[in-house]
Amino acid sequence: MSALILVHGGAGTLADDLHDSAVAGAQRAAEAGLARLRAAEASDEPDACVEAAIAAVRVLEDDPSFNSAHGACMTAEGEFEVDAGIMRSRDLATGAIASVRDLADACVVARAVMDHSRHALLVGEGARRFALAQGVGRFGRNLVWTAKAQDRWERVRAGILDGDNRADTVGAVVRDHRGELCALGSTGGVLLKLPGRVGDTPIIGAGFYAHPELGAAVATGVGEALMQRVACHELLRRVAAGQPAQAAAEALCAEIHGSSGAAVGLLAIDPEGRPAIAHASEHMAWAIAGPERAVHAQLSGSLVV
């Protein structure tokens, strides 16, 4: 089985001074995921794809170039609420959290929901209490606040900057040496969102999905538009019906953007290990890596297959 990892740093519009750092961040995330994938394969770990996805997304969550955890968007009230969702193909297990305040590693808590609870989605204070009981989660406003987020919040509120379609969400899809798949997304939400707003990222089928016979996918962009189309499941359904993954991803991004004007992006790996990377937005930082493939990272553009 050919192992593979794809990562993204969000579909939308990036400030000029973030272009280089976003590409570098995506590359570091892919390298971290690949290193974890190799280590898990060497020790024959059963959830190699999950381990690699977490390793990659943790790099992105800690990078202030992106809008997830450290660098998350501020709500209309100037607070931070993060979401994340994860799913693995071998047993369709899933875990997600939403509207959790001041959390710096949302993907780790989402995994804990998947591995250590009987639920699929926990929100708000209940998710925070669960994380503390499990001994996971790094909480604190100082861990998520950045000068970038503060500046953008103030400029949008003042009408100096357009807050629409700003690059959001980070994510990864991974296929390990066993052919098992994992999809994982993490987000700081939409700038100036109402408190309690939840987008596609923690919603099964819309923001993420993984299935042994369909493949795995993660989405990025304006959550309301992606949820309307249950975007990840729709993409994989089209692949199962015979459409090549890359063509299906490009077509679905174009359709959603065309009908809504929303910035959107999709990453996927089909059951045979063929990757797809597409977006309909000004920018999207992404990277691809595998044991038999050199790490490649870039800003914007779709994967050429």
From TrEMBL:
UniProt-annotated site: Cleavage, residues: D168, T169
Residues noted as binding substrate in the record, renumbered to the chain: R197, V198, G199, D200, T220, G221, V222, G223
InterPro entries hit by this protein: Ntn_hydrolases_N (IPR029055), Peptidase_T2 (IPR000246)
Keywords: Autocatalytic cleavage, Hydrolase, Protease
PANTHER family on file: L-ASPARAGINASE, N(4)-(BETA-N-ACETYLGLUCOSAMINYL)-L-ASPARAGINASE
A molecular-function term among this protein's GO annotations: hydrolase activity, acting on carbon-nitrogen (but not peptide) bonds, in linear amides
CDD domains: Asparaginase_2_like_1
Name this protein carries in UniProt: Isoaspartyl peptidase
Keyword Hydrolase: yes
Domain of life: Bacteria
Active-site residues from the entry: T169
One cellular component term from this protein's GO annotations in UniProt: cytoplasm
One example of a Gene Ontology biological process annotation: proteolysis
